[in-house]
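Hi C.,

You asked whether I'd gotten around to modeling the 148-residue construct. I have! Everything is below, sequence then structure, no commentary in between.
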Amino acid sequence: MVLNKVFLWGRLTADPELRQTQSGKLCTKVNVAVPRRKYGNEAETKTDFISVQVWNKSAEFLCKYFSKGSAVMVIGSIQNNNYTDKNGVKHYECCILADDVQFGESKPSSSAPAAKGESVQPVGNNSEFSGLDDFSDYEEIIGEELPY
């Protein structure tokens, strides 16, 4: 049996940008800030920034209804994207390949989904995630800028 399933709840660190491959497939790559569980007497919540690849209709959905700071739920699998560049340098990347992307917060009072820029209320008690409301202190790290 093979089991490779990931469930994430976090917030986008930047606005997603819809791209198209040469073969016409739609895609986007985003970073999701995911808080770690606090253990013992830890004073502050630590956050992991996880790279997520989203394809086709899910990529369109994400780019249309989500923006920097939006809460997002991602269901997918872990994937290694290792490659050697033209200078012979080996690059290692681990990311999540999204199977499904969903709103991480409830819809506003109207029945339509929240469009970019509209505020929504969190689902349930997300006090553990309250430190992720402001992303002004974070900058997006892309590809070659990763510290590992």
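If it helps when you're writing up: The beta strands are 6-12, 19-20, 26-35, 47-55, 71-80, 83-84, 90-91, 94-103.

Thanks,
B.
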